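User: Could you check the structure of this?
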Amino acid sequence: MSELNQNAENAAASPERRRFIGAATATAAGLAIVPGVMLYEVAHGRAEDQAASSAVRWGMLVDATKCATGCDDCVTACNTENGLTPVAESAHPKQAPQWIRKLELQDPLTQMETNLPMMCQHCAEPPCVDVCPTGASFKRADGLVLVNRHTCIGCRYCMMACPYKARSLVHESLNDTQKPDVPRGIGCVESCTFCVQKIDRGDGTTACVEACTASGHNALIFGDMNDPESEISKKLRELPTKQVRADLNLNLGVRYHGI
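Assistant: Sure, the predicted C-alpha coordinates are below.
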Protein backbone atom coordinates (compact mmCIF):
# COMPACT_ATOMS: atom_id res chain seq x y z
CA MET A 1 0.00 0.00 0.00
CA SER A 2 1.37 3.40 -0.97
CA GLU A 3 2.01 6.08 1.64
CA LEU A 4 -0.70 8.23 -0.01
CA ASN A 5 -3.33 5.49 0.31
CA GLN A 6 -2.31 4.80 3.92
CA ASN A 7 -2.69 8.49 4.82
CA ALA A 8 -6.12 8.57 3.15
CA GLU A 9 -7.30 5.55 5.15
CA ASN A 10 -5.99 7.03 8.39
CA ALA A 11 -7.83 10.29 7.72
CA ALA A 12 -11.06 8.44 6.96
CA ALA A 13 -10.78 6.49 10.19
CA SER A 14 -9.97 9.48 12.40
CA PRO A 15 -12.43 10.35 15.20
CA GLU A 16 -12.80 13.86 13.80
CA ARG A 17 -13.86 12.56 10.40
CA ARG A 18 -16.25 10.02 11.90
CA ARG A 19 -17.89 12.79 13.94
CA PHE A 20 -18.19 14.98 10.83
CA ILE A 21 -19.73 12.16 8.77
CA GLY A 22 -22.08 11.24 11.61
CA ALA A 23 -23.25 14.82 12.03
CA ALA A 24 -23.76 15.24 8.28
CA THR A 25 -25.68 11.95 8.04
CA ALA A 26 -27.88 12.81 11.01
CA THR A 27 -28.69 16.22 9.58
CA ALA A 28 -29.50 14.81 6.13
CA ALA A 29 -31.77 12.16 7.61
CA GLY A 30 -33.38 14.42 10.16
CA LEU A 31 -34.42 17.36 7.99
CA ALA A 32 -37.70 16.11 6.65
CA ILE A 33 -40.52 18.43 7.56
CA VAL A 34 -39.39 22.04 7.51
CA PRO A 35 -35.88 23.54 7.66
CA GLY A 36 -34.47 23.53 11.18
CA VAL A 37 -36.96 21.01 12.59
CA MET A 38 -35.63 17.48 13.08
CA LEU A 39 -37.89 14.44 12.90
CA TYR A 40 -36.70 13.36 16.35
CA GLU A 41 -37.70 16.73 17.81
CA VAL A 42 -41.11 16.64 16.12
CA ALA A 43 -41.77 13.15 17.48
CA HIS A 44 -41.12 14.44 20.98
CA GLY A 45 -42.99 17.71 20.62
CA ARG A 46 -39.91 19.89 20.96
CA ALA A 47 -39.85 23.37 19.48
CA GLU A 48 -36.74 25.21 18.38
CA ASP A 49 -37.00 27.59 21.33
CA GLN A 50 -37.16 24.68 23.83
CA ALA A 51 -33.69 23.27 23.37
CA ALA A 52 -32.21 21.07 26.08
CA SER A 53 -29.93 23.03 28.39
CA SER A 54 -26.68 22.03 30.05
CA ALA A 55 -27.90 23.93 33.10
CA VAL A 56 -29.93 20.77 33.80
CA ARG A 57 -28.52 17.28 34.47
CA TRP A 58 -31.30 14.74 34.68
CA GLY A 59 -30.55 11.86 37.03
CA MET A 60 -32.06 9.09 39.11
CA LEU A 61 -31.42 7.83 42.63
CA VAL A 62 -32.22 4.18 43.32
CA ASP A 63 -32.62 3.23 46.99
CA ALA A 64 -31.97 -0.51 46.97
CA THR A 65 -33.04 -0.75 50.62
CA LYS A 66 -36.60 0.09 49.52
CA CYS A 67 -36.70 -1.94 46.29
CA ALA A 68 -39.08 -4.81 47.04
CA THR A 69 -38.37 -8.44 46.16
CA GLY A 70 -40.68 -9.68 43.42
CA CYS A 71 -41.95 -6.20 42.52
CA ASP A 72 -41.65 -5.29 38.85
CA ASP A 73 -43.96 -2.27 38.76
CA CYS A 74 -41.16 -0.14 37.30
CA VAL A 75 -40.64 -2.62 34.44
CA THR A 76 -44.36 -2.80 33.69
CA ALA A 77 -44.72 0.98 33.72
CA CYS A 78 -41.74 1.37 31.37
CA ASN A 79 -43.20 -1.16 28.92
CA THR A 80 -46.60 0.55 28.95
CA GLU A 81 -45.26 4.08 28.56
CA ASN A 82 -42.84 3.24 25.76
CA GLY A 83 -44.78 0.57 23.89
CA LEU A 84 -42.49 -2.37 24.69
CA THR A 85 -43.79 -5.92 24.59
CA PRO A 86 -43.16 -7.66 27.94
CA VAL A 87 -40.42 -10.27 27.69
CA ALA A 88 -42.80 -13.07 28.73
CA GLU A 89 -45.19 -12.17 25.88
CA SER A 90 -42.54 -11.82 23.17
CA ALA A 91 -42.26 -14.44 20.42
CA HIS A 92 -38.50 -14.37 21.01
CA PRO A 93 -37.97 -13.65 24.74
CA LYS A 94 -34.17 -13.78 24.57
CA GLN A 95 -34.19 -11.04 21.93
CA ALA A 96 -36.96 -8.87 23.38
CA PRO A 97 -35.93 -5.24 24.08
CA GLN A 98 -35.98 -4.40 27.77
CA TRP A 99 -35.23 -0.84 28.85
CA ILE A 100 -35.24 -1.57 32.57
CA ARG A 101 -34.72 -4.91 34.28
CA LYS A 102 -34.73 -6.07 37.90
CA LEU A 103 -31.53 -7.63 39.24
CA GLU A 104 -31.41 -9.90 42.26
CA LEU A 105 -28.00 -9.86 43.91
CA GLN A 106 -26.67 -11.93 46.83
CA ASP A 107 -23.59 -11.21 48.90
CA PRO A 108 -21.53 -14.43 48.88
CA LEU A 109 -20.25 -13.73 52.42
CA THR A 110 -23.36 -12.54 54.26
CA GLN A 111 -25.96 -14.14 51.93
CA MET A 112 -27.85 -10.83 52.08
CA GLU A 113 -30.07 -10.33 49.04
CA THR A 114 -30.48 -7.01 47.24
CA ASN A 115 -32.93 -6.06 44.50
CA LEU A 116 -32.36 -3.18 42.17
CA PRO A 117 -33.44 -1.95 38.76
CA MET A 118 -30.80 -1.61 36.05
CA MET A 119 -31.23 0.66 33.05
CA CYS A 120 -29.18 2.99 30.86
CA GLN A 121 -26.98 4.90 33.28
CA HIS A 122 -26.96 8.08 31.14
CA CYS A 123 -23.22 8.52 31.45
CA ALA A 124 -21.62 11.94 31.16
CA GLU A 125 -18.90 10.15 29.16
CA PRO A 126 -20.97 7.52 27.31
CA PRO A 127 -18.96 4.72 25.62
CA CYS A 128 -21.91 4.04 23.30
CA VAL A 129 -21.56 7.51 21.79
CA ASP A 130 -17.81 7.12 21.33
CA VAL A 131 -18.14 3.97 19.20
CA CYS A 132 -21.22 4.88 17.11
CA PRO A 133 -20.09 5.25 13.47
CA THR A 134 -23.05 7.36 12.34
CA GLY A 135 -23.69 9.63 15.32
CA ALA A 136 -27.02 7.90 16.00
CA SER A 137 -26.03 7.48 19.65
CA PHE A 138 -25.75 10.92 21.18
CA LYS A 139 -25.89 12.78 24.47
CA ARG A 140 -28.19 15.76 24.86
CA ALA A 141 -27.07 18.89 26.67
CA ASP A 142 -29.22 17.92 29.67
CA GLY A 143 -27.40 14.59 30.07
CA LEU A 144 -29.87 12.25 28.37
CA VAL A 145 -28.19 9.57 26.25
CA LEU A 146 -30.43 8.74 23.30
CA VAL A 147 -30.51 6.96 19.93
CA ASN A 148 -31.76 8.56 16.71
CA ARG A 149 -33.52 5.71 14.93
CA HIS A 150 -33.30 7.54 11.59
CA THR A 151 -29.52 7.20 11.53
CA CYS A 152 -29.01 3.98 13.52
CA ILE A 153 -27.75 1.22 11.21
CA GLY A 154 -28.05 -1.58 13.76
CA CYS A 155 -24.32 -2.32 13.88
CA ARG A 156 -24.57 -2.96 17.64
CA TYR A 157 -21.19 -1.44 18.44
CA CYS A 158 -22.91 0.53 21.22
CA MET A 159 -24.34 -2.66 22.71
CA MET A 160 -20.86 -4.14 22.94
CA ALA A 161 -19.43 -0.92 24.42
CA CYS A 162 -22.08 -0.51 27.15
CA PRO A 163 -20.77 -1.88 30.50
CA TYR A 164 -24.35 -2.18 31.82
CA LYS A 165 -25.97 -4.32 29.08
CA ALA A 166 -28.56 -1.59 28.84
CA ARG A 167 -29.13 -1.62 25.07
CA SER A 168 -31.24 -3.90 22.89
CA LEU A 169 -31.70 -4.40 19.16
CA VAL A 170 -35.27 -4.43 17.86
CA HIS A 171 -35.68 -7.73 16.02
CA GLU A 172 -39.44 -7.70 15.43
CA SER A 173 -41.98 -5.51 13.68
CA LEU A 174 -43.49 -2.85 15.95
CA ASN A 175 -46.65 -2.11 13.98
CA ASP A 176 -48.96 -3.13 16.84
CA THR A 177 -47.12 -1.44 19.71
CA GLN A 178 -45.69 1.74 18.21
CA LYS A 179 -46.34 4.89 20.25
CA PRO A 180 -46.55 8.24 18.37
CA ASP A 181 -44.22 10.03 20.80
CA VAL A 182 -41.74 7.16 21.24
CA PRO A 183 -40.12 6.54 17.85
CA ARG A 184 -38.82 2.97 17.54
CA GLY A 185 -37.96 0.77 14.59
CA ILE A 186 -36.93 -2.74 13.62
CA GLY A 187 -33.19 -3.06 13.13
CA CYS A 188 -32.43 -0.17 15.51
CA VAL A 189 -30.75 -0.20 18.90
CA GLU A 190 -32.59 1.37 21.82
CA SER A 191 -32.43 1.78 25.59
CA CYS A 192 -33.97 3.69 28.51
CA THR A 193 -34.49 7.34 27.61
CA PHE A 194 -35.51 8.54 31.10
CA CYS A 195 -38.93 8.93 29.41
CA VAL A 196 -37.66 11.82 27.31
CA GLN A 197 -41.14 12.35 25.90
CA LYS A 198 -42.47 13.03 29.41
CA ILE A 199 -39.57 15.34 30.23
CA ASP A 200 -40.05 17.33 27.04
CA ARG A 201 -43.74 17.85 27.66
CA GLY A 202 -43.03 19.04 31.19
CA ASP A 203 -44.08 16.03 33.31
CA GLY A 204 -40.82 16.27 35.25
CA THR A 205 -40.53 12.56 36.07
CA THR A 206 -40.43 9.08 34.55
CA ALA A 207 -43.00 6.29 34.29
CA CYS A 208 -40.95 3.97 36.51
CA VAL A 209 -40.72 6.57 39.28
CA GLU A 210 -44.47 7.23 39.11
CA ALA A 211 -45.19 3.50 39.41
CA CYS A 212 -42.75 2.99 42.29
CA THR A 213 -44.25 5.93 44.17
CA ALA A 214 -47.80 4.74 43.54
CA SER A 215 -46.93 1.31 44.95
CA GLY A 216 -45.67 2.94 48.13
CA HIS A 217 -42.08 1.72 47.84
CA ASN A 218 -40.55 5.11 46.98
CA ALA A 219 -37.31 3.46 45.89
CA LEU A 220 -36.81 5.77 42.91
CA ILE A 221 -36.24 9.53 42.76
CA PHE A 222 -35.82 11.44 39.52
CA GLY A 223 -34.83 15.05 39.02
CA ASP A 224 -32.26 17.69 38.17
CA MET A 225 -28.94 16.88 39.83
CA ASN A 226 -27.68 20.37 39.00
CA ASP A 227 -30.41 21.98 41.11
CA PRO A 228 -29.26 22.01 44.75
CA GLU A 229 -32.88 22.42 45.88
CA SER A 230 -34.28 19.44 43.95
CA GLU A 231 -35.35 16.35 45.90
CA ILE A 232 -32.70 14.19 44.25
CA SER A 233 -29.90 16.64 45.07
CA LYS A 234 -30.97 16.78 48.71
CA LYS A 235 -31.08 12.98 48.93
CA LEU A 236 -27.67 12.66 47.27
CA ARG A 237 -26.27 14.91 50.01
CA GLU A 238 -28.01 12.93 52.76
CA LEU A 239 -27.37 9.34 51.65
CA PRO A 240 -24.16 7.51 50.77
CA THR A 241 -24.43 6.44 47.15
CA LYS A 242 -22.42 4.48 44.63
CA GLN A 243 -22.02 4.42 40.88
CA VAL A 244 -21.96 0.99 39.25
CA ARG A 245 -18.46 0.40 37.86
CA ALA A 246 -17.25 3.70 39.25
CA ASP A 247 -13.75 2.64 38.22
CA LEU A 248 -14.66 3.46 34.60
CA ASN A 249 -15.00 7.17 35.48
CA LEU A 250 -18.12 7.63 33.31
CA ASN A 251 -19.89 10.01 35.75
CA LEU A 252 -23.26 8.25 35.76
CA GLY A 253 -26.68 9.84 35.87
CA VAL A 254 -27.98 6.93 37.98
CA ARG A 255 -26.80 6.58 41.58
CA TYR A 256 -27.52 3.67 43.95
CA HIS A 257 -27.95 3.67 47.72
CA GLY A 258 -27.69 0.43 49.69
CA ILE A 259 -25.48 -1.62 47.38
